Structures are given as C-alpha cells and as structure tokens.
Amino acid sequence: MADDRGDGIRTEDLITLNRSTTVVRLFAGAVHEVNNALQVIGGTTEILRLSPDLEAPVVDGLKRIHARSPADPVASLPSTSSARARGWV
C-alpha cells in the first residue's frame, strides 16, 4: 500500500504502531498485576517478621523473602510518559 493519507504516513505503519501500542498496554497491565502480588508478599512477610511468637529459622526465612521482594520491581521499566515520548502508547 502506498501513502493513502497524504501526510507521508503509510497505512502499514499505522497498523504496526497500533499493534505495538496494544502489546505494550497488555504488557503494562500484566506487570501491574505481578507488582501488586509482590507488594502483598513483601508486606505480609514484614508483618509476620514482627510477630514475637516465631522461631529464629522462620524469622530468618521471612527476612530472606522480604529482602528479595523489591520495593518497586518495575522501577527499571520505562514510565508511561517515556513510553508515550517514544510513541509506544
């Protein structure tokens, strides 16, 4: 297909951009859901760790789990504004 629009943008490019945008949005939603679960795990281990009735091995295990649950596991991913600037969304 040639330039149907008269503005230098090919129809195939618009279709590809639309598909890419859809994939990025789906990925962002999945990452958000995973992040929610990780936040719950991190918060729960922190609360359990403070329980006075736990034995030392359990507390050590909870510390290890909590240490592995990052405060923000998606911090290294591009922000929405950065994705917009790149034309991803």
How many strands?
Answer: 0
Number of helices: 3
**C-alpha Rg (nearest Å):** 22 Å
User: Helical proportion?
Assistant: 55-70%
Structural class: mainly alpha
Shape descriptor:
rod-shaped
Describe this protein's structure.
With 89 residues, the protein is an all-alpha fold. It has a domain at 19-72. It has helices at 11-49, 56-68, 80-85. The two termini are 24 Å apart. The mean pLDDT is 77.
Keywords:
mainly alpha; 3 helices; 89 residues
Compact summary:
This protein has 89 residues and is mostly helical. The protein has a domain at 19-72.
SSE inventory with pairings:
Blueprint: H1 11-49, H2 56-68, H3 80-85
